[in-house]
Each structure stands twice: as C-alpha cells, then as structure tokens.
Amino acid sequence: VTWETKLTLTPIARRAIYGHMMTSRLFDEECAARLQRGEPLPHYHSGVGQEALMVAPVASLRPEDRIIYTHRGYGHLMAKGVSPREIAHDLLMKVGGTNLGLGGVMHVHRPDLGVMGREGVFGTRFGLAAGFGLASKLRGEDTVTLCFYGEAAGARGLLYEALNMCKLWRLPVVFVAENNGWSFTSRTEWLYPSPRMSDAWKGFVPVQVVDGNDVEEVWAATDEAVERARSGGGPTVVEGMTYRLAPHIWFDDAGYQPAEEVERRRKDDPLPRFRGRLLELGEDTADLERVEAAARHDVSEAWSSADAARLATWDDTPWLVKA
Amino acid sequence: MTIDVATAQMTGRQALNHTLRLEMRRSDQVLVMGETVRHVGAAGVTADLFGEFPDRVIETPVSENAIIGSALGLALEGFVPVVEIYCADFMLAIANELINDIPKWRQQQRRSGPLPLVIRACMGATAGLGPEHSQSMEPYLHHAPGLTVITPGTPSDMAGLLRASIRGGEPVVLLEHRKVYDATGPVDTDPDFMVPIGRAETVLDGDRVTLVAWGWMRHLAEQAAEQLIGEGISVELIDPRTVRPMDWSTVLESVARTRRLVVVEEAPVTGSVAAEVVARVAEAGLGEVTCRRVTMPDAIHPYSATMEAELLPTVASITTAVRAVLA
C-alpha cells in the first residue's frame, strides 16, 4: 500500500489500515495457536489489542520515511510494507526472512522500506531516531522518523537525551508511546506517576494523549505530528492509551493479569471497534470481508511458506562482522 | 621514478586535527560530533574546525548515549561520523551502544555494506586526573567481537590510523593517550597517507627478547630498549598499534625467534590485553618461552599524581622485567 498525504483519512487509507490491523491480528492468532500446541516461538510478543496504535500512525508516512518499531506486535512492520511471510520466516529462524537467523524477529531489517532495524536493549532507539532525524536535516530532506516505544524504553534516560537533541535541532522525529497498561508483570502505574508515559514531556515538546484503540483519533494526532516534523516544527510525543490483551512473551501465562480486567478491556478491542466505525461510515460489509479474506490469505501463505522453509545455517550467510 | 614524501613535524594533537580537516575537505559525509567540539574539544583536537565546517562540526549536549546512538543512526544513513567522547572512561556510560549495539548491528540485522563510525577519546594516566578519568580502556573493549580498537603511539600513527578509520567503513574506537597528544614526530602530509589497521610496527629489530608495547607505553619501552641495547642486549620492540584485531603473526614470529616476551601495558594486570598476548604465545606451540607482564597492579588510580606514579610502568620496571626473562 502506498500511503498518500491527505487532510482526512480517505476510504482507501481506512481500508488499508483495517487490512493491516486484520493481518496483524490473524498473524498473532496463528502464533497463539502454535503456542497452544506447545510449539516454541522464541522472542514472540503478541500485539493483540494494540493494532490501531501500531498501524494508524504509519498511514501518514511516505515510503522513504523511517520507523523504529517495538518488539510487541508486527502491525508497524506490515504497515510499512514488510510482508507477513518475512516476519514468519524470521520468527522461525528460517531462510527467506530478513536476517537468516542472525537476529530473528527482534531485528527485522528492510532499510529499503525505511525499516532500519532495532536495538536489543530498549533505549538505543531514541538516539537512533535522533540520528535519522539529523541525517534528514543535514541532507535538507523532509524525511520523518516515527519512533514507537513502550513502558520499558520510555523509562530510560535516553528518551530525555534524544528529545532534548530533537528539540534543540528541530529534528523531524515523532515519538509514539504505546501505553498498554503493562510492562511485563508490572502495571504502568507502578512505573509512571500519573500513570501516563508522556506527562514528563508536557511543556517541553508538544504532547498529545489519545485513545490508542481509536484509529481515527490516533491517526489525526500522529498525522498532525508527522506534518509538524516534516515542516521543520520538531518533535512531538503522542501517547496512545491501549491495553495488552495477550501475555507479554511466548513463555508467559499472564497469571498476574486479572482475567476480569482482560475481559472488560476486550470490549474495547480496536478491531471490531474500527470495523463497526467503517460500516457506520458507509463501508460495504462485502468489501470488508474481501479485506479480511485477503488478510487471512496472506497470513496463511506466510506460515505455510515459513513451515516449508529450512532453518538458516552459517552456510547461508557470510560472517558479516569480523571477529 | 622518485616519490616525494613530504613530512612535517607535528604533535599528536596537530596530526589528528590536520587529518580531520583534510578528511572533512575530502568528503562532505564526514561529521565531527561531540561535547565542546565547536571550541577545541576535550583536548584541543577539534580546534578551528567549526569555522571551516559550521554544518558538520556538531556540538552536542552532554548526552553520551544520544551522541553515540545518533552517530549510529547517521552511519546507517550513509554519513561518516567521527565522534569525540570527552574522556575514554566515559565509554562505560555508553557501553550498551558501544558493545551491545554497534558491533552487532550488521550481523543481527544482516545488513550488508560498510558501517563507518569512528569513536575517538582521550585516555590515560596523566598526572592525577583520578580514577574515572585515567583508565586505560583497551582491556574493557578488546573483548567485544566486531569492534576495532586502535591505540596509536605516535603522531604519525594518530594521523594514519585516523584516516584509515574514517575511510575503512567499520566501527572503530581510537584510544588516544593524552601524552601522545604532546609528543612530536614526523607526519606524512600526503592527503591519502594511511597506516593499515591491524598491522603492527616493528620499531626495533632484535633477537634476544621481544618487547610489546602500544600507546604511551611504546615510548617507555623505547627508552628501556635503548638502555638495554647500550648494555649489549638485543631487543625487538613491537608496537601492535591496533589491539583488536591484534597482528598476531608479527608478535608470534618475533617470540618464536627470541623465546622471551615482555608486554608493557598501562592498565591493571587482571584481564589485560597483555594477558591475551601471553595466552596466545602460550598456545602457539613455540616451545619454552619466558614471559613477563609490566602493567599497573590491580589498583584504582589515586588523584595524587605522586601516588599514581608508583603504580604505573616505568622505564626501570621494563628493564627489570627484561633482565628477569633473560636470567
């Protein structure tokens, strides 16, 4: 999908967002089914419940814009153009992925799509984002970097260092805080005072807190932030309030997450919510079913391809880094 | 055909400044970043660069993690950042980027192509700067696969290795001993003059004992060797110049002949680079080899320069060690 700059979310963009959200959801559901069967999925982190916040911000980007994705969920990657097939291959450390078992799903890498890679210890992303922003500025380009982050990275001091640099040099970087209520077994409110992740930045840079499960609200806030960045207005922090409906990581049973809380928050699931909104806006059920069928097809093709592929070995890749 | 090689006498500081200036003129992708670089930088190396390259000499806040992280971002975008970390000891504050991210980046991401990123810092015990501003950092860094660690000992090597680092397309850490900034020596002024990374220099040829020393220690070892040669002891002095990757063949070939090895290092003895040199020699199957390490003991630098001097290698401690391996 090629996104185009627009004043409002066009029907084509809305449908594309819905398609990526659905692909991300079905991909996670397949992962959950595999875990249920006892199959290992190392480094898998479910994005279920956070699809609106992962996908809608990317809708404002151009192909050459950069994203720094989080470990949780694959909607950001899919919306930027990475195929579910590559992600499945990387998850299983198979040939046919982006890194041949050297980085797995934690280091999906498609610089041609503006997916520049990801750090292993959360936090370096903020310095990287400032660096990508500085590169745009030095070249006189208007490329924007969208930097997603969660509660873990956002608690590190590097975010302050990078925000300071981005503000000081008016760098085109948008920071998207994914506040999903949990940081592994810790509640966000045990880690952040308000419990908002962005309160500390109010008065320092533009901050907007939005309903992270409302596609249109997320899109409007991030679109404004992206345009501000692109036109030389510097950084923005957009915090999306969402909820982690699935366990933290593949080996987690989330026994610490009260079941009734999860059930209550499931009523706010962004997928049925956005589907309902699309119908309200006059979308045709048959059209949405076509989008859903395409997503199902892509996910199913991705996993059959990954299952059929063989594990990557050292023979598949030159030793890139000299010891 | 004769090739004219113009040389000029320069201090180490001037050699680095001269090289940075020429490299920035040669390529507009080369950036200088760091704290106080707009004035002269931590030790005078970036003097007068801002005037000529106001867009490419980037004065940063005191935010080491963001400096090094943004430099990685710039390198991924095709720039050649030359980052000055204010003091080599502060590399421990950016160890995550320096060890977890930068050397691993291309492998984890399976990214092909160069990753040019030069990280320079002043270093070394220099008259009482205290325990967090005096450490020799090469033992901490030489353990990290994927990182190149350079410890130039002369103005010529500072110029030639900096240029080779800028053009080399690899992440490189240049550890610049403060005392070498003030040392004077001839520097080849050819704008393409480079010293190959990973190649040792045999400073003195000899056959009874091999002395290995780098950075400022090379100068102490040279003085010790002159004294010993005056006494009729033939000393081979090797300056590896790059501690990672180390030029093992030059070291091993020398020790295979002399069967006696003294390694001089300013850092504390445990886990030192010298320990790795001795281990490699021991594993090389050279037969009986007598080894000594002349290092700082496992101690913390005091602020008092007088007390610190008692901990550091000296010409006398080097000659004593050489005599011991010859005994």
Q: What order do the helices and strands come in, and which of them pair?
A:
The complex is a heterodimer of chains A (323) and B (327).
Chain A: H1 11-36, H2 51-55, E1 66-68, H3 75-79, H4 84-91, H5 124-139, E2 145-149, H6 151-154, H7 158-168, E3 173-179, E4 182-183, E5 186-187, H8 188-191, E6 207-211, H9 215-230, E7 236-241, H10 259-266, H11 270-280, H12 285-308
Chain B: E1 7-11, H1 12-26, E2 30-34, H2 49-52, E3 57-59, H3 64-76, E4 80-85, H4 95-101, H5 105-108, E5 117-123, H6 138-141, E6 148-150, H7 155-168, E7 171-177, H8 178-182, E8 184-188, E9 201-204, E10 209-213, H9 217-230, E11 235-239, E12 242-244, H10 248-258, E13 260-268, H11 273-283, E14 290-296, H12 305-309, H13 315-326
Parallel strand pairs in B: 2-3, 2-4, 4-5, 5-7, 6-7, 10-11, 10-13, 13-14
Antiparallel strand pairs in B: 1-8, 6-12, 9-11
Helix pairs in contact in B: 1-7, 9-13
Structure write-up:
The complex is a heterodimer of chains A (323) and B (327). Chain A has 323 residues and is an alpha/beta fold. Chain A is globular and about 50 Å long. Chain A is built from twelve helices and seven strands. Chain A has helices at residues 11-36, 51-55, 75-79, 84-91, 124-139, 151-154, 158-168, 188-191, 215-230, 259-266, 270-280, 285-308, and strands at residues 66-68, 145-149, 173-179, 182-183, 186-187, 207-211, 236-241. Mean pLDDT of chain A is 94; it is low at 1-6. In chain A, the strands form two sheets. A five-stranded parallel β-sheet of chain A has the order 1-2-3-7-6. In chain A, strands 4-5 form a two-stranded antiparallel sheet. Chain B has helices spanning 12-26, 49-52, 64-76, 95-101, 105-108, 138-141, 155-168, 178-182, 217-230, 248-258, 273-283, 305-309, 315-326, and strands at residues 7-11, 30-34, 57-59, 80-85, 117-123, 148-150, 171-177, 184-188, 201-204, 209-213, 235-239, 242-244, 260-268, 290-296. Helices cover 36% and strands 23% of the residues of chain B. By secondary structure, chain B is of the alpha/beta class. In chain B, helix 11 links the parallel strand 13 and strand 14 (290-296). The mean pLDDT of chain B is 96. Chain B is built from 13 helices and 14 strands. Chain B is globular and about 60 Å long. The chains are: A alpha/beta (323), B alpha/beta (327). Chains A and B meet through helix 5 and helix 7 of A and helix 3, helix 4 and helix 5 of B.
